Automatic annotation (TrEMBL):
Signal peptide: none annotated. It holds the Pfam family DAO. Keywords: FAD, Flavoprotein, Oxidoreductase. InterPro entries: FAD-dep_OxRdtase (IPR006076), FAD/NAD-bd_sf (IPR036188), MTOX (IPR045170). Residues 4-348 form the FAD dependent oxidoreductase domain. The keyword Nucleotide-binding does not apply. Its cofactor is FAD. This is FAD-dependent oxidoreductase.
Amino acid sequence: MALDVLVVGGGLMGASAAWRLSARGHRVTVLERFGPGHDRGSSHGTSRIFRLAYAEPSYTELALRALPLWRRLEEESGRAVLTPTGAVDHGPPEVLERLAEVLARAGRPGRRLSPGEVAERWPGLRADTAALYHPDAGRVHADDAVAALLDAAGRRGAKVRHGVRVTEIRRTGGGATVVTDADEALVADAVVVAVGGWAPGPAAGVVSGLPPLRVTQEQPVHFPVPDALEWPSFIHHPGAGLRLPGGVYGLGSVDGVKIGLHGAGPVVDPDDRDRTPDPAALDRLRTYAEEWLPGVAGTEPEPLTCLYTTTPDEDFVIDRQGAVTVLAGCSGHAFKFGPALGELAADLVEGGPGLPRFALGRTAPAR
């Protein structure tokens, strides 16, 4: 039975849910507070890492579910969004052994490399202690991906409304009512809330068990080098030659080689944040590049800011209570899974079960 579904939020998660729901024949309307391609949240920019290498097998499985959906999206939208580049993880040998083990169990290739072999193949990248190369990795163009998702949803009948701020969500009977800042009261069979760092507002009154969400302003940088698109994605894990907590990630993009710290920014209010670059954060990344990225020598990093919204255990929230499905806490490493998370949301809207790892009300890390 086709349902009337309101998707609140038109970033990656909302757009993914809209695409998969519309593909199943549901009548979908997306309500996005900001304009097309905005940079206020977590879904903008030119690059995100796609990878299969995770220490937790369930995330590798989720990435494997997402991969064919990314390719289907490209076919439906006519946009190329996922570019294979391969990826290099490097750092403590025990970390890389675990990644290699998970990849092998999933039947995916991975090759151990010495720092010398990494330098020979990618002269711009210096590896630490040990490295693992996995070819089934790459980069996703973030802005193009969100636009492609909304376009593909629209081709299947979804309506996308920008400049609409939701002020309240109420459960009403077997469905829900969404109130906008224009005093509209929109009635639907189901609502999907996918508003990133703003989730506690609209979700708080209609679902219980939402874990604390930490919203931070992160500051990656781009080094504008001419060969950026030839770089692999890479993750430098802490614990060997690197002492930065959380490690450093990087990848090539049309804007240059991008690097960033994982979840190291200050806590902010998404409606009231200063997007001025932090000189101390910039210095940390510049110093890192001087030691580990010889290929960007002589270039000045160009900073940018974005929001991270994370849960205490860094697992996502993808769950339903009544007519309301919530996607939250999806920053840091969720972009690669976007279409697969949209599938999970569509399953929930249709009354299917969720994954315990992503449940509302979980009291301890599912690990």
